[in-house]
Amino acid sequence: MEKLDFQGKTDPLILQKSLEIMGISEEEIAEKTEALKERYFSYLTENIEEFGIIIFPGIIEILEILSARKNIFLGLLTGNFKKSARIKLEGANLNRFFSFGAFGDDAPIRDLLPEVARKRVSEKFNKDVDFTNTYIVGDTIYDVRCAKYAGAVSIAVGTGWGETEHLLNEKPDFYFDNLKDINQFINILED
After folding, report:
1. What's 79's domain CATH number?
2. pLDDT in tens, the chain (191 residues)
């Protein structure tokens, strides 16, 4: 696993690349993927039950504020498999905030996920959303790049594994060390 950089990659891509590194053929990967995913979901659930989830300050308050607003469609855009994303969110009681999303199952490359999310907004809410009115919040350089690729507003948060300098080098539209200052974050959406 030390041969593969996980940051910014979707779960399907991580699984595929990991198995390729181990010398497993494409045919075997196709055969084993579902069983490996189920094993991963089981381990993930067990680990969350044993160790819990860390929720950074400000997250729940921001989600509560945003979910109460009628003019905001709050969705999850993640490279995780849909099931693993839901397992992680459930471990912190956060699923309640995200009625839709775009997941690693939907596209192997993160940059393709905003278009999936826009389609889901259209289907679920019968609204067309312009990416200039879309905010992508993330803690990796790949989240910033994804937002820029889509033409969305990028909000980088320095709570991830990457170095702050690398995140800032991507020139996000907005940067926060963390989301403790709830009002400052919410003000961005109101400008």
Report:
1. 3.40.50.1000
2. 677 777 777 888 888 888 888 888 888 888 888 898 999 999 999 999 999 999 999 999 999 999 999 989 999 999 999 999 999 999 999 999 999 999 999 998 999 999 999 999 999 999 998 999 999 999 999 999 999 999 999 999 999 888 899 999 999 999 999 999 999 999 998 86
Which structural domain range is residue 157 located in?
A: 1-191
Residue 178 · residue 56 · CB < 8 Å: yes
Look up residue 100 and give its two tokens. 């839709």
**Domain count along the chain:** 1
Take residue 166 and report the two structure tokens written for it. 């690398």
In terms of phi and psi (left: phi > 0; alpha: psi -120 to 50; beta: otherwise), the region of 124 is: alpha
The single residue listed with the structure tokens 């994804």 is 146
Distance CA 126, CA 121 (A): 7
Q: Scanning the structure block, which residue is given the tokens 């320095």?
A: 158
The pTM for the full model equals 0.90
Q: Using an 8 Å Cβ cutoff, are 117 and 107 in contact?
A: no
**To which residue do tokens 């490279």 refer?**
79
**CA-to-CA separations, 121 to 100, 114, 126, in angstroms, rounded:** 8, 10, 7
